[in-house]
Amino acid sequence: MKKTFILFICICISVTSFGQKQVSLEEIWLNYEFYPSGVSGFKSMYDGEHYTTTEKGDDVIKIYKNSFETGEVVEIIMDSEDERLKRMGKYTFNKSEDKILIATNTESIYRYSTKSVYYIYNTKTKRISNLSENKVMYATFSPNGKNIAYVFENNIYIYNILLGNTKQITFDGEKNKVINGASDWVYEEEFALVRSFEWSGDSETIAYFRFDESDVKEFSMDLFKGGLYPTQEVFKYPKTGEDNSKVTLHLYDLQTKRTTDLKFEKDYEYFPRIKWFNEENPQLVIYGMNRHQNELDFIISDIKGSSYVLFTETDQYYIDVHDNLRYLTKQESFIWTSEKNGFNHIYLKYLNGNEKQITNGNWEVTNFYGIDDKDYMYYSSNESGSIHSTMYKMSLTSNLGKGSPMTKITGTNNVTFSKGMKYFMNSYSNHNTAPVYTLNRTSDREIIEVLEDNSAFNKTLSEYDLSEKEFFTIETEVGVELNAWMMKPTDFDSKKEYPLYMFLYGGPGSQQVTDSWGWFNYFWYQHLNQLGYIVVCVDNRGTGGKGAEFKKMTYQELGKYETIDQINAAKYFGSLDYIDSERIGIQGWSYGGYMSSLAITKGSDVFKMAIAVAPVTNWRYYDNIYTERYMRTPQENASGYDNNSPINHVDKLKGSYLLVHGSADDNVHVQNTMEMISALVRANKQFDLFIYPDKNHGIYGGNTRYHLYKKMTDFILENL
Fold this sequence. Notes:
By secondary structure, the chain is α+β, with helices and mostly antiparallel strands.
């Protein structure tokens, strides 16, 4: 305990010590000097007593077996100089842990989807074999470790490890027409569902999605890449009010080699999740959801395709899809989280239809980790404050409504458990403390080993003159309390007036004001502080951490109340003696770009400058799952779409406005910026524009990030 206390004290001192050096853009975005260390390849082994980590050198790839109890290396599982493994990415073990499935040469497709060359490494013989000669998607061991399923060219294949042969089980996959076992673009982006197949617990059945994209309209992007003629990337993208893929669910039986089509009594627009339970008598849990996403059926199906609805959840606004679902064999029940009492809490759902609320209070459960063999459940919540995250332990039979804290320091705690939940790794950070990774014993919460304390990184930081991030709340004109943070120059003088730079995101359920490490943007704000700017961030209504009503009150009117809050916040800051009310600027990315565009137009008398990176400029141009969740369709809610579209407020623009977009943004299409340009030109409004060729929504690669942040910094200096 003494060692741990000293550790955290030293970190805080090192971050806040007075240094002489100034933060430069080159150090942030070219040299990446402000990148703390992590724990590479951490993965619990099946015995729950050991975990693995990786080491990737120029010539050798190693996988270590470590003891949870001591944190020490007990075995080197893999020590390979094989060229085929040099670009090793994710890896998984089979159940007996004598084989490792290794993804290499991974290529991104969209935000989450990838394809890789996979190899099977035999830990006993040290031999390496190809899963396939091709780059394939989502290769996954069966629970018994005898087979591997994967997706190639929109079809599902099964590789038999013992026999070394491959069997194709779907045959109608075709680009931009039919997808088997993987998700379409909008499911991937908005439901975070990429691998759309699941092995049953007995390894005898594969449940999979089939997406028929035939009726979904295509979107095309020109790709330049230095060629004489551009090429086109064409993909299916359902915009608001437009047709989705027709999604069906199927069961493939490995023994009979037959496929069963699942049928349901209702027509569902979406199936955001499937999950198997009950290994001895496999049954499939299916989420079935309507297009408005305010009604979710919890469906149970057997392997013969017979199904029934266990329970239905409804909401007057919308229901967020999550993975907080666990089947409890002993209780014949499910763990489920719901916002139906106003805050996200844990419920026990019995197979007879009854339920019991487990946690309760005016705070939110933010993550559910699981239940151990003694019926203690583990979850994270913001009970200690809406900007904090703490992990708790609570008996399933408790009637207290809240648990006891398992992580000891206030800030943000992200936890990864061992199999069986006897141990956990905690990644702790706060606004001034880079992530600290510790190995912990669940029974007494004690730290076994500090895996990474980032002491070298903190030593580097101690050489710089860094500002503190101050947290506080703002009460708006309508009596709403908003979370905020502020960063001032280290030589701040309350008798002087400073220009104000506001950063925001502001989208539904998001949080930018959290007591956590700020990564690269944190150092950009430090750079702006050094240039004489005060930097602030305010979480407007519609953001997360404060219950369902606070989050969902923007329903059918995205942008309206968020903009009001940001304008009111700017007015408040402008009233402070040390802030120049004539020099207030605002910047955001994606939803934040949408918000900064509304701020500089609707709030033209308040904001002198705005930067919008990859902004939505009219929700009619965005995908239907995300937008309709909050807005319904344009056919149902035309005024909600149009009244708060920046395109329809360009005539109000007075200040300096910079538009930035990547031409290959598959998410927020550059169409948004092009339509904004047209509207600005029609209104005879001057503005600045920069397009990054062939860059996606993240706008990165090579010198791109440095170039972007240099451009934004220069624009701030010139116009604020």
